[in-house]
Predict the structure.
Amino acid sequence: MASILMLNGPNLNLLGDREQSIYGSSTLDDIMAACERFASTCGFSIEHAQHNAEHRLIERLQQCRDGSTRGIVFNPAAFTHTSIALRDTLLALRLPFVEVHLSQPLARESFRHVSYFSDIALGTISGFGADSYLLGLQALINHLDAAPDAGGSAATQRALQA
Ligand code: DQA
């Protein structure tokens, strides 16, 4: 089964407890379980990882060079606004990825208005809370389904046409 990596940056392990008025009450485990259920109905498996350290995120991304991963849904969290190193890793990988955020960074402090990922991502989904992950995953799967060497099902197309 084709695999998608869902990768989460610093402090996202605290979801459900951290600043609930901004990030909601779902835990990261809740969100990843919902994504796993959705992906499996589309014929994809999910691998998920969360790291607080930049180098561990880089190392996890570099593991995708083994060819087993078709695409990535990435919430770089605070590294969104700082990390040239993670950007360079994604450029080296050449795998399609969707940037996701629970909050809408453009409606927050000005230091969150810069993203080192948006211009190299397939697209960015932000501001929909936990749904941002599901929407980002659906967008990635639709993209992979449309690709000529797609390994996934066309379940999302069928759902849209129903
Ligand atoms: C975030 C937005 C970032 O600005 C922030 O540093 C995070 C979470 C989000 O999902 O809304 O940690 O990526």
Notes: The helical segments are 20-23, 28-41, 54-63, 84-93, 131-146, 155-161.
